[in-house]
Design a protein that fits this description.
The chain is built from 13 helices and 14 strands. By secondary structure, the chain is of the alpha+beta class. It folds into two domains: about 190 residues, no CATH class; about 210 residues, no CATH class. The strands form two sheets. Strands 1, 4, 5, 6, 7, 8, 9, 10, 11, 12, 13 and 14 form a twelve-stranded mixed β-sheet that branches. It has a two-stranded antiparallel ribbon with strand order 2-3. Strand 2 and strand 3 form a beta hairpin. Helix 2 packs antiparallel against helix 12 and helix 3 packs across helix 8. The radius of gyration is 33 Å and the shape is elongated. The two termini are about 25 Å apart. One of its GO terms (molecular function) is transmembrane transporter activity.
């Protein structure tokens, strides 16, 4: 009996015990669905994350204020680090621009939960107001949907203009035509000069619920000098990033007047640090998904072995007839092994289809539509290989037991 005949025989056996086979295949289906589904969702979300970061590149870093709090050690109060001020940020920008061919952006968070008004309409108090210079949009990976960017002239003259995030513009102007309209931000009237393309929130921020205003205009709202300014530095060659970061740190220490024996009074963050952390988390998620699938498939293999043992017992007389007609023990083993593999592959194929569908659906919902359709072929192939291995391992003992049956005793079996 060749492979084709064994496969057909396996399908006939499956058809004769349809309910029992479906229940076993379902366990295998859910195991493969868990494996493929989790990994598909991870791959799809990671693609969206990479897309969000590709505009920022890996050739930039941020200088930010330390987020420390007053504490006491050994009865002595720890020194609280002052935030980076506007003058320090501009001093750094001037000094660094003289020594390197770099693009530098200075910005600060004016408000993180602000209400924006247009005529009689109000937004929810969940908008970020960022005061930035003309380099902010390019360095942070935003793109202009319509209108223009903030300019150096806007900063110099303190023009009350704004560039809105996509969601803010859509709330007040769903049909477009937002340019030139006046809205109220922080109680002041601002003219809309631009709207950003939708970016999504894969990086964890309110990228589409924000309003950009000129840096100097935002500075005017800093009445008590507590605003913390962030400096983003981007260089043309990503290979020089470590060297440039070291130079930027040295310049900032000089600007902040840090003593040689003191640690940095600020923090340095690379643009790709968050991406690296996410990749590390997704690695653990892959391991977890594989572990869940392994446990499910282990249960499926035990159930499959039980079914194959029952099948061997039910078909004892058939085995005796085959042996009486000249079937060798090897052919008997091969026949039952093929039946087990066919059952696993049927469940595996169904699991792959459901896994891809469920994984992409989860990714689409979690990424607010930013995740693209993904089919992780490497994991799909591995899943089907695992199905074959499970079928061979689960079916070997029942097949071995069938091959060792005595044909005379088998023919007497009722």
């Amino acid at each position: 009996m060749n492979v084709k005949e064994n496969v057909l025989e396996g399908l006939r056996s499956i058809k004769s015990n349809a309910l029992r086979t479906v229940l076993t295949s379902a366990i295998i289906t859910f195991g493969i669905m868990a494996l493929v589904g989790i990994l598909t969702a991870i791959e799809s979300m990671q693609g969206a994350i990479n897309k969000s970061f590709e505009g920022m590149g890996v050739n930039s870093f941020d200088l930010i204020s330390k987020n420390d709090f007053s504490a006491r050690r050994s009865g002595r109060a720890e020194k609280v680090t002052k935030p980076i001020s506007f003058r320090e940020a501009m001093d750094y920008k001037e000094r660094f621009s003289e020594s390197e061919n770099a693009i530098i952006s200075v910005y600060t968070m004016v408000g993180g939960a602000e209400v924006i008004k247009y005529q009689n309409e109000k937004s929810n108090p969940n908008n970020s107001i960022i005061a930035a210079d003309e380099n902010y949009i390019g360095l942070k990976g935003y793109k202009i949907l319509e209108g223009r960017n903030l300019t150096e002239t806007d900063r110099s003259y303190g023009s009350k203009v704004t560039v809105l995030g996509y969601d803010v513009a859509e709330k007040f102007f769903p049909g477009g035509k937002s340019l030139g309209q006046d809205i109220f931000i922080l109680g002041d009237r601002f003219t809309i000069v631009g709207v950003l393309q939708k970016k999504g929130s894969m990086t964890g921020g309110n990228d589409d619920r924000m309003a950009l205003i000129p840096l100097e205009v935002g500075r005017n709202a800093d009445t008590d000098g507590r605003f913390a300014y962030t400096i983003t530095t981007s260089v043309p060659n990503a290979e020089d990033i470590d060297e440039v970061m070291a130079e930027g740190t040295a310049i900032m220490r000089l600007v902040r007047q840090d003593r040689t024996t003191d640690p940095d009074s600020f923090e340095v963050e690379r643009a790709d640090a968050l991406l690296g952390e996410f990749n590390e988390v997704t690695g653990y998620m892959r391991i977890g998904g594989f572990g869940i699938s392994f446990i499910t498939l282990l249960g499926a293999s035990i159930a499959l072995m039980n079914i194959m043992m029952v099948t061997v017992t039910e078909r004892t007389r058939e085995i005796g007839i085959r042996k009486a007609l000249g079937a060798t023990p090897a052919k008997i083993r091969f026949q039952f092994l093929m039946e087990a593999v066919v059952i696993c592959l049927l469940g595996g194929i169904a699991g792959v289809i459901l896994g891809i569908s469920a994984g992409n659906l989860v990714s689409y919902l979690m990424s607010s539509g930013e995740g693209s359709f993904t089919a992780p072929w490497n994991w799909i192939i591995m899943g089907l290989v695992v199905c074959v291995v499970v079928g061979l391992l689960s079916g070997y003992y029942p097949a071995y037991k069938a091959s060792k049956m005595d044909p005379i005793e088998s023919l007497r079996y009722e």
